[in-house]
């Protein structure tokens, strides 16, 4: 089966549907409103998004056309609800679908990050299971996951899904800029240092005045 390339919003919608099926099955399938809230969640999302109903509604027919998500069948409800069809499309194991969902929601991650974050969707007894799962996804035809080149200063390689197309690791200079930015003093630290400098300046001025008064005694 060919990979059906997804846009950024389609990726978020699909990942959110999979996550909610695995973590809160009692509220699944999702209404449009619940799906929008899931897409815009602040936790377990990278990047954070602020999608409106129209954006999510437009992504659903595209996913339906690709056979990956659509209206829930046989639902006795006055409100339209939606479900993913990733399992039907790819016949994933529970480990595979949990790992892929995490990659859809957060982007490239290390095996250690995937184990701790995807564990809420399906239990991973050890890191080896995550690595084996990633290998199976990489050996699919075509591959659904790839390992990214390890960045300077990092201990572990990260893995990315390929449902949105090929992914490249950011250039080394980008990592340097990020590292330089995060190592800058915080605003609070700067304010503290400025306050200390001001105190020292006042103390030096006071000492100069005392020394000048002392000299006048001998003139």
Could you walk me through the main structural features you see in this protein, from its secondary elements to its overall organization?
The termini are far apart. The strands form 2 sheets. The protein has a 3-stranded antiparallel sheet with strand order 1-3-2. A two-stranded antiparallel sheet has the order 4-5. It is elongated. Helices cover 53% and strands 7% of the residues. It is mainly alpha-helical and 219 residues long. Helix 6 packs across helix 7.
Rg estimate, integer Å: 27 Å
Compute the average pLDDT: 84
Strand order of the largest sheet: 1-3-2
Largest sheet: 3 strands, antiparallel
Poorly predicted ranges (pLDDT <50, ≥5 residues)? 172-186
Share in β-strands: 5-15%
Which term fits the overall shape?
Answer: elongated
- The helicity comes to 40-55%
Structural class given helices, strands, pairing? mainly alpha
Succession of helices and strands: HEHHEEHHHHEEHH
What's the tally of helices?
Answer: 9
Distance between the termini: 99 Å
């Amino acid at each position: 089966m060919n990979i059906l390339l997804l846009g950024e919003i389609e990726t978020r919608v699909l990942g959110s549907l999979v996550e909610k099926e695995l973590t809160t099955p009692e509220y699944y399938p999702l209404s449009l409103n619940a799906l929008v809230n899931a897409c815009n969640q602040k936790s377990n999302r990278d990047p954070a998004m602020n999608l409106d109903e129209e954006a999510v509604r437009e992504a659903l027919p595209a996913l339906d056309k690709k056979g990956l998500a659509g209206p829930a069948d046989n639902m006795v409800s006055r409100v339209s609800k939606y479900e993913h069809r990733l399992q039907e499309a790819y016949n994933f194991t529970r480990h595979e679908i949990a790992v892929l969902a995490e990659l859809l929601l957060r982007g490239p991650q290390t095996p250690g990050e995937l184990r701790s974050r995807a564990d809420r969707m399906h239990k991973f007894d050890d890191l080896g299971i995550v690595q084996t799962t990633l290998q199976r996804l990489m050996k699919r035809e075509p591959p659904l996951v790839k390992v990214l080149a390890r960045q300077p200063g990092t201990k572990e390689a990260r893995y990315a899904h390929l449902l949105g197309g090929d992914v490249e690791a950011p250039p080394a200079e980008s990592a340097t800029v990020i590292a330089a930015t995060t190592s800058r003093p915080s605003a609070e630290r700067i304010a503290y240092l400025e306050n200390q400098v001001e105190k020292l300046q006042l103390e030096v001025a006071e000492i100069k005045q005392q020394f000048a008064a002392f000299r006048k005694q001998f003139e």
